[in-house]
Design a protein that fits this description.
6% strand, elongated, EC 2.4.1.32, alpha/beta, 18 helices, single chain, Spore Coat Polysaccharide Biosynthesis Protein SpsA, Chain A, transmembrane, transmembrane helix
Length: 581
Amino acid sequence: MEAGEIGGALLFALAAAAALAAAISSGAIDFRAPPTVGAPLGLQEAFSLFIRVFDGSNNSSSGAAGEAHELWVRVRGGVIAPVLQVAVWACMAMSVMLVVEAVYNCVVSLGVKAIGWRPEWRFKWEPLAGAADAADEEKGTGVHYPMVLVQIPMYNELELCVQVYKLSIRAACELEWPRDRIIVQVLDDSTDPFIKNLVGLECESWASKGVNIKYTTRSSRKGFKAGALKKGMEWDYAKQCEYVAIFDADFQPEPDFLLRTVPFFIHNPEVGLVQARWAFVNDTSSLLTRVQKMFFDYHFKVEQEAGSATFAFFSFNGTAGVWRTAAIKEAGGWKDRTTVEDMDLAVRATLKGWKFIYVKSELPSTYKAYCRQQFRWSCGGANLFRKIAKDILAAKDVSLLKKFHMLYSFFLVRRVVAPTVAFFLYNILVPISVMIPELFLPIWGVAYIPMVLTVVTAIRHPKNIHLLPFWILFESVMTMHRMRAALAGLFELSEFNQWVVTKKVGNSFEDNEVPLLQKTKKRLIDRVNFREIGFSVFLFFCASYNLVFHGKTSYYFNLYLQGLAFVLLGLNFTGTCACCQ
């Protein structure tokens, strides 16, 4: 479906809704009027009968409709409302947990920024000489350059817009480090022989230039990324390396990346991981990537910065980080028991007493790719919570306060509470409340707390303040996927361990302009997200009910906007060019 078709459909729908509202307000259509006795029911009469049953303001109904209405009122007030009220107060409690956690992280992050705190204040750091000066080491005047392994896991990294694998391999091979002290290892799990051949030729090209680069493949994709990283560490040359830097195929490190990170390990033997912050090459390519950047900015600038400054603990992002190989081995190595192998390793290394330091990657350019990525992360985090909670409680090398931070803040609030309350309260309970007048929603829970969370999210990136309305609506839709993922991981449902690689398209747009959309022949199931479309029907129904009858609340404006967001994303109305989708 093209942009013109979608725009025409939306304009038609909005015009029809406006005409219907005008007809209702003028009295041309009266849904409260009883149908003519003995006459066949038309559309208006049928809907009128439905309204007479469910509208609590009409208590003078008689006959079957009146009896049905009285039964509905009794069931609604005696059964449905009390059950939903319990859910409301549970959501209020979770909302308080969420806002306290968010405000705490924000205060710490702002404090770190205000005082200009840097990791060097807590951990010793001294610069190494430039790679060109490494020859002085042989004379005894230079500094020791340890062996570093650079791993680049990839899977079918070839898109029509740009060959991503070339960019990542080139960036790794151009890192400033003595050539005899660095090994670049390309872990290619590609299933396409054509792509494998291209990646292999690229590695041969760099090897001919004197770069120590190894191209490795596997016969199966067992364990996915974790399996590839684990297999890569089993080579004899890998066992000789003291540190291992990991870059996904969409990451292009700066040339001085190792010179900025490795010194932390040399002078601080307790440090097991140094994580660099991501920067994005395609954050302005579409509205979708702009909104995503707000989410990731909060994660990096607030959550990880606060974790590093307080407990020297946070989740490894899976890329743009350097590990001490001893820390990986002591933690038990890479494991493929969840889809968040990076978070799993980080938690296990922390339980062994290792500390982390938080000192530019690519954003998914299509809605479906982002949904898959968020599902994998949300599901894996909840599943890891289920599997490692006992280990955290039993750990002897971790303080009680740090255990509380890991279990309550890092896992419970962020991986379980946040996706649950965000979807259930604002997308289920609030819409349903317009039809259940007995249901009480405290104003501080549905208005003040969301306002605080919005401010906390926006405070670290004021340049994107104009995108907040889009971010709020976008996150409203994403909560459906995150809650489904969290439940799947927590209870290990059928889809909890699925792994789908996020496609990358690189920074292929010049001057930040998105090229014209191209027609593609796709099945309806690939072009339309039916979950979003179905849920939009529910939101539009609740909004229309609230608009017609008002009642004690007026949520219809917000509900219409939420429904519109579900429709737009349900029709994939965002992203980049069709050739990249």
